[in-house]
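General statements about sequence and structure are easier to judge against a single worked case. No coordinates are needed to read the tokens, only the vocabulary itself. The sequence in question and its structure tokens are set out directly beneath this paragraph.
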Amino acid sequence: MKQYYKRTLADRYDGWRVRNVDAVFNIIPFILRTRMDAQNLFEENVPLEPVEAFIREHREDLPDLSLMHVIMAAMVRMIAEKPYLNRFVVWNKIYARNHINISLVIKRKKSNIETMVKPEFDPSDTLYDIVRKVNELVEANLADDANNGTDTLVKIFGYIPSWALRAFIWLLYRLDSVGWMPKIINRLSPFHCSAFLTNVGSLGIGPIYHHLYEFGTCSMFVAMGNKHKIRTLSHDGAPAEKRYIGLKFVTDERICDGQYYASAMKLLRRVFANPALLLEPPAELAIDDGVPQKKLIKD
């Protein structure tokens, strides 16, 4: 049975208004008025052995599978099963996003110039779906002459005089705050997304805490670093050395509480420990119960 919400005047085209929350969450967006005010930072080290073994096992049916694909699929699964992570705050109001998308920075093949893509996913997507969608979008944007809408929009902005651009960006902020910003800007903007994922490990460094953006609706920024070793103790007390990849998260604390974030991280660890879970869709798709249930429609 498919479940979704009916849109009303209180909603935006990219999300439903969240009202059924603890009283403190109705007040927090007025006290912590910006994402910079509300940033939380935490780190997670992912053991590489289970993930790399899984990638080797699926060289035939998923020949293009990479660590980045597994991390993206794990993030999509986490958002699908923990829908509060897909909320965002605009103009002191909390909304539940009505889609899942993750912004990525990629580099062109020849020029090595960076560009941005934003693949969109369904909550029921499996690892096969994630790999296909990401690869199709990345391949379409790798060539130097690729038609990337975000790049085109940035070039147009570059021709506008500074005084006019300042006024135009101010206008976009105001329109976005009331949900009236043109949909095409929302579609092309990498800052309007469920999460932003960057691979700074490709630069040979560890993960960084990357700030959230005030423009847009992104409530979670994830940076993955390079592979590294950590000395630990085995179950029998003997010294051991294991390989990990570090992930650093910057999140907006206004969308959910610490206990919810902790449960989401436990889910993420469980998926990384057994990536085969990503080959099947979630057993049950969760919906955001913060949206009034009178809007809920079941087909």
Notes: The chain has one domain: 3-298. Residues 162-177 form the longest helix (16 residues). Residues 44 and 290 are 28 Å apart (CA to CA).
